[in-house]
Write a structure and sequence with these properties.
alpha/beta, 11 strands, three-stranded antiparallel beta sheet, six-stranded mixed beta sheet, 343 residues, globular
């Protein structure tokens, strides 16, 4: 028995060596968000998705949240591409010259909820837009939109296009900026986190946002009036992506696990979380006695007429990218109806 001991020790050593690769196979990816930790984008989309991936990969892929976002919000695409952070998201409104195709989902009069818009947009994106390569340089995992974008003001209620004349309105850029100009307002293109300071200081007279943002950015303390449009006055479209080098280093098994939680899965996850957050925002406005009205039929018709050229402008920009813009737009309208009906 004593003679067998060296062989037992050798076998144990070999077992430890064999187990070493498995122990070191864990990949830790960094992620960051340019909105607060309590925001639904951070808590219910980015972090919730990360937990799902950790479970799907049996802990082989884990995530570490950076304490501070490594760039200004519009620089998020570059930050992920250049490896300053491995996983994040950004709205196409912040980079409209680089990402004109996703602006389709920002045009006025989409579906009634973020989930409807996100899923319809996701289906059109992967079919028509992805081949155009606007997210080249990163691994795009999903696209989605926020809830219907509405009008919020500090000094007066907006009941007509005439009320918007000359008003300084904070906008994230993209379609909401163009829509504001079409309606005679003066848009201030600033990232969402700057909204409270802009409104409380009087630099801006109002802002375009989904209802969720009223609570997320503490705007119930400064906003006095809200004007709601069916399907929204605009939306904002988002890309959710990973550093491409880090993606390529993952095993095929882990890539497949992540892909199973990407695409339409991310669209539904983000859409549902945003709809829940929109409800919280509406409750916050009621509690703060914000004067909330529904836009009148005449107001809606006037807005649609004045912003209609934006649809044709987007179609032309899509055509210039090699995408049949009219076909993609028509299919998006069909998908909005399908998703709303449960398909």
């Amino acid at each position: 028995m004593q003679a067998l001991r060296p062989f037992a020790l050798l076998a144990a050593a070999l077992a430890l060596i064999a187990g070493a690769p498995a122990a070191s196979a864990q990949t830790v990816l960094t992620m960051s968000s340019w909105v607060p930790p309590t925001h639904s984008l951070t808590r219910d989309v980015l972090q919730a998705w990360a937990k799902q991936v950790e479970q799907a990969t049996s802990g082989r892929v884990k995530f570490e949240m950076l304490p501070k976002h490594p760039s200004a919000p519009p620089g998020t695409f570059d930050a992920v591409r250049d490896g300053l952070v491995d996983v994040s998201f950004v709205t196409a409104s912040y980079t409209p010259a680089r990402h004109p195709l996703p602006l389709m989902a920002e045009l006025p009069g989409a579906g009634a909820t973020a989930e409807i818009n996100s899923v319809a947009f996701s289906r059109v994106h992967w079919k028509y837009f992805q081949p155009a390569g606007e997210y080249k340089g990163v691994k795009l995992l999903g696209v989605f939109t926020h809830g219907p974008g509405q009008m919020f003001t500090v000094k007066k209620q907006v009941t007509s296009v005439a009320d918007l004349a000359g008003m300084k309105i904070r906008s994230g850029g993209g379609i909401s900026e163009k829509s504001a100009k079409a309606l005679g307002a003066s848009p201030l293109v600033k990232p969402a986190p700057e909204s409270y300071e802009l409104l409380s200081s009087g630099v801006a007279d109002g802002t375009f946002f989904p209802s969720e943002s009223i609570k997320a950015f503490n705007l119930d303390k400064v906003v006095k009036y809200a004007t709601l449009f069916p399907g929204g006055f605009y939306s904002s479209s988002f890309g959710f992506f990973m550093n491409e080098d880090k993606w390529n280093k993952l095993s095929k098994q882990d890539q497949d696990a992540i892909l199973s939680l990407s695409g339409e899965h991310i669209a539904r996850l983000a859409g549902k979380s945003w709809d829940a957050a929109d409800r919280v925002g509406m409750d916050a406005m009621k509690a703060a006695n914000v004067n909330v009205i529904e836009a009148s039929p005449a107001f809606i018709a006037d807005v649609r007429q004045r912003t209609a050229p934006l649809v044709q402008e987007w179609i032309q920009s899509a055509n210039a990218k090699g995408v049949d813009g009219a076909k993609a737009w028509a299919e998006y309208q069909d998908e909005l109806k399908k998703v709303a009906s449960g398909k």
